[in-house]
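Subject: complex prediction, re-run

Hi both,

The earlier run crashed halfway through, so I resubmitted it with identical inputs.
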Amino acid sequence: MRTLLRLVSLNYFLRKGKLKTFLTTAGVALGVSSVISIEIVTRSTLVAIESMLEETAGRGELVVAGDSSGIDEEWLEKVRKVEGVDHAVPVIRASVPLTAVNGKRLVGPDGKARPRLFHVFGVDAVDDKSVPDKDFKDEDLVMEEEDKLDFAIKGNSIVLTQKFADEMGIGDAVGKAKVTLVTSRGEKEYVMRGTLKSFGPVKVFGGHFALISSDFAQKDFGKVGRFDEINVLLPKKTIKKVEKGADGKEKIVEEKIPASQAELVKVRDAIQAVVGTVARVERPRDRGKNSETLLQTMQAGLKLVSLVSLFVGMFLIYNTVSVTVVQRRREIGVLRALGVTRAQSVAMFAIEALIMGLVGSALGILSGMLLAKFLLKIAATNVTTLILAADISKIHVETAAVVGSLLLGAGAAVLSAILPALGAARVSPVEATRPTTLAVALQKRSGVYTILGLISFAVAGGILAIPACRQIEILVYGSTMLIILGTVALTPALTVVIVNAIRPIVTRLGGVMGRLSADNLLRSPMRTSVTVGAMLTGLALTVSSSTYVESFRVSIDRWLEVTVPADMTITSSHEMISPVSLPMIPEVADEIMRRVPAVKEIQKLRMIGIEIEGRRADIIAFPSQRWAARGRLLMVEGDEKKAAGALAEGNHVVVSKNLATKWNLHAGDTIKVPTPLAGIQPFKVVGVYHDYTSVFGLISMDEKVFWKYWGDKRVDSFNIYLHAGIAHEKAQDDIRAVVQERYAAFVLTNQELKQKVRDFVGQAFSIASYIEIMAMLIALLGLLNTLIVAVIERTREIAVIRTIGALARQVAKAIMFEGVLMGFVGAVLGVAAGSVLSAINVHVIPGIQAGFQIDYYFATEAVIKISIVSLIVALIAAFLPAYRAARTNLLEALEYE
Amino acid sequence: MIKTDKLEKWYGETKVRVHALRGVSLSIVKAEFIAVMGPSGSGKSTLLHMVGALDRSSAGEVWIGGRALSGLSDNELTLLRRSQIGFVFQFFNLLPTLTARENVLLPALLDGVATKEAERRADALLDRVGLSGRGRHRPDELSGGEMQRVAIARALVKEAPLLLADEPTGNLDTTTGRGIFDLLRELKASAGLTIVMVTHDPNAAHHADRVIHLRDGLVENDVRNHKSAGTDAAATGSPVAAG
Ligand SMILES: Nc1ncnc2c1ncn2[C@@H]1O[C@H](COP(=O)(O)OP(=O)(O)OP(=O)(O)O)[C@@H](O)[C@H]1O
Ligand SMILES: [Mg+2]
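This time it finished cleanly. Structure:
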């Protein structure tokens, strides 16, 4: 074996195979790179979100949390009095945009305003440590004593993170530097009184974290008299233990141990009994569950992408490795004729592949990590402005992922080598030495693939046809995979169909050489499918997810069109309407009505997050009668007019389709909702309608009902209707003037609001789309690689054609044609497979995830763009090998054997 | 038709230089059938490659139909090959993805011959080399001799005036080999084909008009084969020629 490797393998590498070895290794590297970079991006994003949830979960052993409108201050004292409670600390927090530093607006690279989303915590005093973190130590705080005093008494004090301060170049300007936050009373400047060194929350928020005094936090964030939650600590027990000291003598040591589980449960039940339905008492760990749905929605998209990337990677590896082995089929024949055993010859190729696989995987892991890092960096600046305050720019690499990709890359390489090598070793040496090429070797199996492809489609179709199976995530993903596999398996057969269809056009454009290249593909459709497999999968992925996003976008757009007919909307939040906004007082509406005559009507909306039996939902309160007169509800169940009438009459609600799906609710059912003022109340569902406001699901009730049970008249957004024939610009300015005396709220026209929603949707999917771009990039690089390999494989063929009279130019042209044709086949099949996938995405996956039901809208524009790009890349990819082919030394190529 | 003057070819760098041809001067007229012989490594294939415009000489000059090759661009060389020269390689060099018939067709199509006409010629040639039934087979389904015959048919399909063949019968049994020689001779007679054929077969040399012996890259001797005139005459009456 050693001799074989040294003599045959090494010499192959040194003499002829340098370029090929390089390309094969590069193929493995690309494949591994795509798998690991996507894995890292996915993992890092999820870890960032998870650790954000964990860090903000609270340092208390128990957390008393109301709905998102918070809990009244009066409960703090009551909680403190509960037996077994050692400390009860209020938490006030807000996520608000920081817009300026020292009066200078923060802008992005494009020159547009780019505020940073900040997590601000209210604390009684800086060293009070009610900050929800386990590791916040005194050393973490850089602050003078007198600044600490100022912090407590001066309302414009803020403690920023050292990281952010350094970034902004104000790291040493304590007491002087100022930052501007958007508060519920408008933009406000704060003076930096100190800085926080890196610790938990600072890290997860990427430095976008700040402390202000709790009294002022309540005022500034519209939470006067309210807390977001109360952290509860139980007394530590002191136990005495006997320990052996260093001197060998036994001595008694005192140790503090936290309360036991049983005590924790006891205290929890005691507090719950006191607060009743006003709040839930939980362990902080359990609170993270609230956000799980959101996390799952993100995860679902990312999981699918990384699964597909695995395919892209495997194809690249299989392609490049198997091509080289098939090419050396004759070598196997010769070796076998010389007395090398079957096993030895296969082993030789396996070991070669293993070495290339390992080297390629190592390179792939390195480049994948770099790629992921780069990608996360771009994504981070984009995503964190709207959606996430978590810092996703840090890359998180798991050892398992690295080891896994290494094994995957090497394993796939070895397998890709063994299969064709076995094929060659199985036949007699004489047979193996016959001239053959990949095309011929593969062609024999093409019928099997067609059957496999059809079976894959049939199984996938069967699974998806059964409604019960559509609800099971793993089956849905499984059928997605089957469809991709099926498409690849059917590629040979479909290549023939496609190429035949366009052959006349190609002949007209390319003459004899055009026809030759078309015929060449027709003759070797298997080779084509191997070459375009990776590109096809990448494209299918891109097409399906852009269509998924487009469907969401258009569905939401259309919903906005009918549901939000208001001319203008005032929203205090940087988001649309959401439970994390800074609510405004209702009197704003009266003031606008009084001072802006153009306004005809104003409707108030309030939205809060609640939890019912451990499941998250959002409640929206709105004037149902007025709404019904103006807008429309896209009813799924129940009659619109009747439902609107019923809402005003008391304990009636309409719920969004996604909530209905998730909770299995129908018109006529009753849900029990905990309310702060009247305990658990039953509400009858009088209708189900389409609404995309909340991923958790929306319970809509009349505002009067809400006021009665929640006693909360604050407003998250005002919908404004103007008199007919009024100039919107003027009215917008006037309204803005009134609102901004009090709040830094946004006054948006209908168009602007829609744009905002679109941006939001775009950002919500942006990580997935970055990954898609990456997958596409790698797939196209793969196409380049495989085309080059395909041309090298045919060096001899090309030389023959040249000797019998084809011009270098003609050969180059033929190869370019072939490349573009392959690109075309890949594009057509990729788009086709992508359309099927997107239909599943649109109709099945949102249902599993958020319960949303969206309509199918094909992302025509994006698909055309991406198809053109891939054709251009195919052209470029074909150019290199064509150039090379045109320049091959004829005799060398001919005497190659 | 062909003229070479002090033709030299060497391979590799100065230190390890292999001198394949050391100054070959030849003159071959139209419709001449030349056999090139000589020990292995004497430069036969190299000479054929030079004459066939497949590679450039290191020194000296080659003229084909009065045109000096050294002054021609790669494109011009290709066009010359396309219109003037048919090749039969020592290792057949058929395109593995094409069928026998398609392999034969290809040069004609490249030369701009209409598809119908090219197909007619290909079928006629396959018939002539005794492969009329095997046109739809791919090279890996043919025997060595059959592949060689396909290669010959391919070289002839363009009806180029010059045919260069490197050991065309090296892989064939005597009977088939003789059939090939007969075919070549007949073509020379009927179409005025100029043929340069490398061979190790002393019998084959008898069929030629002239035998050129190479040794160490030089012409060792160059003899006119008088007997060939007789065989030529005999060939005219052969069944192949008659058909
Ligand atoms: N590409 C090349 N690189 C280096 N040396 C070469 C090359 N091609 C041929 N030679 C050398 O040139 C000399 C002549 O080779 P050529 O192939 O013309 O011999 P030949 O007479 O055809 O032999 P044979 O009867 O074995 O085919 C040989 O010594 C050979 O080793
Ligand atoms: Mg030779």
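Chain A has four domains: 20-57+289-436, 58-288, 492-562+758-897, 574-743.

- K.
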